[in-house]
Write a structure and sequence with these properties.
The two termini are 35 Å apart. The radius of gyration is 23 Å and the shape is elongated. It has 335 residues and is of the alpha+beta class. It folds into 2 domains: 106 residues, no CATH class; 135 residues, Glutaredoxin (3-Layer(aba) Sandwich). It contains 13 helices and 9 strands. 43% of the residues lie in helices and 9% in strands. GO terms for molecular function: isomerase activity.
């Protein structure tokens, strides 16, 4: 478990086995629907003769002297790490390559190419992960998955500018799929919004509702949010819903509308109808098409930020990586 500032994200839904293998850990609010329709399986082939299980992979070997690998790196200080964490980090620096494209390990890039900001961002994330107990082998796998995602096909979303903050011309659009009744969404909300406001010149933050079917008041709450949007008060209702998450029954939603200066009778009528349900299904279909498996899920320019928690440092890291990627036309800056 992390020591500080971690906000676990885990209102999960069951997903197909392939996605389960790479899904993030964490307990959560289960949903009977999956992220994609199940495919028709072909008849099973005859079972092959069982083979003995392969031996587990050997752990990465740490350098004989971790202090030598971690010292002499301009602008970076790893002295606060424990001895065990230093050994793991030294292994990462000696075994992992820098994704800037240079033919050097991460450690060599940090020492030889002091202008490579990319390597420094990688090293900071690796240092955080080992400090929280992750072994070098796990750090290397997660770094590879994270950077490999930049070259994968990006999801495309249709957003509503009334549900976005920041300029539409910002180089990075962050899309959050969220459920007003999901406790993990409520915990992530202040971190995401503070990040968006702090980086308003470079980030446009857009909210897309994804009410989970196992949250009984998620759909009415989302209806209330979309109705308030049409009255020009989406963000006010958005905040009120999360601040009153313990009671999102229809009568409570009507009371919130009154507090916001809206016509509560009109919202009461909306909640008794199917108003906005078709639009909500459209938002959910966008999430399903993108492979969403739970809430909240965050996308940077259509790239899923596949993390089990939200932390400002990691959001900033991903934004800086995305800015570099966009500036260099879908490539990393030359070393």
């Amino acid at each position: 478990m992390a020591k500080t500032r971690r906000v676990l994200l885990s209102c999960w839904k069951p997903v197909v086995p392939l996605l389960v293998a790479v899904a993030l850990t964490g307990s959560g609010c289960k949903n009977p629907e999956g992220s994609a329709p199940a495919s028709t399986q072909a008849p099973a082939a005859p079972a092959a003769q069982a083979r003995p299980p392969a031996p587990p992979p050997e752990p990465a070997a740490a350098p004989a002297d971790p202090s030598q690998a971690l010292s002499g790196i301009p602008g970076m200080d790893f002295s606060s790490l424990s001895a065990a964490s230093k050994r793991e980090l030294a292994t990462v620096l000696s075994d992992e390559f820098c994704y800037c494209g240079c033919p050097h390990t991460l450690g060599a890039c940090l020492k030889s190419h002091t202008g490579c900001r990319h390597a420094k961002r990688m090293a900071r994330v690796a240092a955080r992960m080992v400090s929280e107990g992750s072994p070098a082998t796990e750090v290397i796998v997660q770094l590879s998955q994270y950077y490999g995602a930049f070259r994968e096909q990006r999801a495309k979303f249709k957003v509503d500018e009334r549900m976005c903050m920041g300029s539409a011309s910002a180089p990075v659009t962050v899309v959050e799929f969220s459920d007003f009744e999901c406790p993990y969404c409520a915990k992530a909300r202040p971190v995401l919004e503070a990040f968006a406001k702090k980086n308003a010149s470079q980030v446009r933050f857009c909210y897309l509702p994804f009410p989970l079917s196992n949250h009984v008041n998620a759909v009415p709450a989302a209806q209330a949010a979309l109705w308030a949007r049409d009255q020009g008060k989406f963000w006010q209702m958005h905040d009120a819903l999360f601040e009153n998450q313990d009671n999102l029954k229809p009568e409570a939603l009507v009371a919130l509308a009154k507090k916001l200066g809206l016509e509560e009778d009109r919202l009461a009528a909306v909640l008794k109808s199917d108003s906005y349900k078709q639009e909500l299904e459209g938002f959910r279909n966008q999430g399903r098409a993108a492979g969403l498996s739970g809430t909240p899920t965050v996308y940077f320019n259509g790239r899923a930020l596949d993390l089990s928690f939200i932390q400002e440092e990691l959001l900033t890291h991903s934004m800086e990586d995305e800015l570099e990627w966009v500036t260099n036309k879908n490539a990393w800056a030359a070393d």
